[in-house]
Amino acid sequence: MEDSNPIPLFSHPGNGRAVARVYMLRPELSKILNYYGRMVAAGEWKDYAIDHLPDRAIFSIFRRASEMPLYTIVKEPALSAAQGMWRITGTAGQILKRGHDLDKLLAYFDAKLLKAVD
């Protein structure tokens, strides 16, 4: 059974106070990396970065390491009841897709993958 609630992990930023962070769970990260690997094989994507913030976790996708991210896949549990905790944003920060289910959200990249291979 997959747990959709984030596991609050704590770090001490130097002042001795604990700070909760949102992390992606292993099955979630595995699904994202599966799509990432297919796009790397197609020659579309080259690099990625993962950020864990107090309110969200971000997987950024780059064409080149020196550029702004092409896409960011954001997990924000505070929005899970309303709009869905997952979203894909573009380079300018526009929301391209939003939802509750990560699999349906990642299907956004299927069209990009077919275009890249074709």
Radius of gyration: 15 Å
Number of helices: 3
- Counted beta strands: 7
Strand content: 25-35%
The proportion of residues forming helix, as a percent range, comes to 25-40%
Spatial order of the strands forming the largest sheet: 3-4-5-6-7
Distance between the amino and carboxyl termini: 37 Å
Average pLDDT confidence is: 83
Series of secondary-structure elements, N-terminal to C-terminal: EEHEEEEEHH
Which structural class should the secondary elements be placed in? alpha+beta
InterPro entries: DUF2794
Protein name: DUF2794 domain-containing protein
Organism: Gimibacter soli
Brief characterization of the structure:
This protein has 118 residues and is α+β, with helices and mostly antiparallel strands.
Explain what the structure shows.
- It holds the Pfam family DUF2794.
- The protein has 118 residues and is an alpha+beta fold.
- It has one domain (24-112).
- The protein is built from three helices and seven strands.
- It has helices at 26-41, 102-106, 108-117, and strands spanning 9-11, 19-21, 47-52, 57-62, 71-75, 86-89, 95-99.
- The strands form two sheets. A five-stranded antiparallel sheet has the order 3-4-5-6-7.
- Strand 4 (57-62) and strand 5 form a beta hairpin.
Give me some keywords for this one:
118 residues; alpha+beta; five-stranded antiparallel sheet; 7 strands; 27% strand
What is the element layout, followed by pairings?
Blueprint: E1 9-11, E2 19-21, H1 26-41, E3 47-52, E4 57-62, E5 71-75, E6 86-89, E7 95-99, H2 102-106, H3 108-117
Antiparallel strand pairs: 1-2, 3-4, 4-5, 5-6, 6-7
